[in-house]
Amino acid sequence: MNAVKTYFGAVFVPALFAIFTVTTFGQGTGGASAVSSVEISPSKVPVEVGQKVQFSAVLKDASGNVLTEKPTGWYAAPFDLAKADENGNVSFFQPGEVTVIALVAGKPTFTKVVVKPAAVKTILIDKVDRALIVGGTIKLRATALVSTGDPRSDAAINWVSENSAVASVDAAGVVTGLSAGKASLKASSGSAMGTITVNVVKASLRELSVEPRNASAKTGDVIHFKALTEGSSGSYEPRWAVSGEGATIEDGVFVAERPGSYLITATIGDRSASASVVIGARNVERELKVVSHSLLKETQGAEEWRHLRSHST
């Protein structure tokens, strides 16, 4: 009578630690000892983030005969890139190299899979509601989306103007009006493409100003600036700029991280206007007031700190 013995152990593979049970048989036929080779398929398969692939294992004995035994477990590592279920279905979450492991007779057999970022399926371009003046510039914003509708921030987007005599566009999506007319601009990433039409007009502005002309705030406060025009009935998109480091402005929204004085400039065509803002340091030191006392023995507790601020211009 053949003896049956069971051993407990562990197998280590890169980024994986799996506990397993190995059952060995005496000099009988069949069982785990009959397995001589294991082949995992598919061995080379193109995989993208978001896909799920079914893997299978073919077990053979020393004579090359296919066995009916199945793997006792499936694993995928690193765990943050992929996950496998008990049937060999592997879901891929992030790009990188993934090791797919089949546990057979207490021994791991694995194959490696290179996971690529999900292909871009759609390009969305934010609308431009205002006309662009000849000589003026605007910044277009495009978002690359995969088949699930999720954005891919690492996707490279290429810009092309189909009416280069009317408007040009650079690699960053900055459009410059060259002559009156309409220009079709395309953003592409791989086979995905999006299109937007920009209206370029000639305009003669008598005056351009920025409001508020002067402002003061603390670091971290948000100030909204507006570009006001006179002498033209059209509505135009200004180009905003801020002098010095430690502050940013986009669409007239200004925020400073460092104290100091800053010059805000709005430009439409050949007209420019400026405003100034003085930013002071934010003093977060305040007197603490004890509200109550409480002894925490077996009760869990936590602290919560809040900083409330308000600012208006």
Give a topology summary:
Layout: E1 4-13, E2 16-25, E3 37-41, E4 47-48, E5 52-54, E6 56-60, E7 73-77, E8 82-84, E9 89-92, E10 96-104, E11 107-116, E12 120-125, E13 132-133, E14 137-139, E15 142-146, E16 158-161, E17 167-169, E18 174-177, E19 181-189, E20 192-201, E21 207-211, E22 214-218, E23 222-224, E24 226-230, E25 239-242, E26 247-250, E27 253-256, E28 260-268, E29 271-280
Outline the structure in words.
There is one protein chain. By secondary structure, this protein is mainly beta. The protein has 3 domains: 4-116, Immunoglobulin-like, CATH 2.60.40; 120-201, Immunoglobulin-like; 207-280, Immunoglobulins (Immunoglobulin-like, Sandwich), CATH 2.60.40. The chain is 0% helix and 51% strand. It has no helices and 29 strands. The protein has strands spanning 4-13, 16-25, 37-41, 47-48, 52-54, 56-60, 73-77, 82-84, 89-92, 96-104, 107-116, 120-125, 132-133, 137-139, 142-146, 158-161, 167-169, 174-177, 181-189, 192-201, 207-211, 214-218, 222-224, 226-230, 239-242, 247-250, 253-256, 260-268, 271-280. The strands form 10 sheets. The chain has a 4-stranded mixed sheet, with no helix packed on it. Strands 13-20-19-16 form a 4-stranded mixed sheet, with no helix packed on it. Strand 17 (167-169) and strand 18 form a beta hairpin. It is flat, with a radius of gyration of 32 Å. The termini are far apart. Residues 1-31 have low confidence and may be disordered.
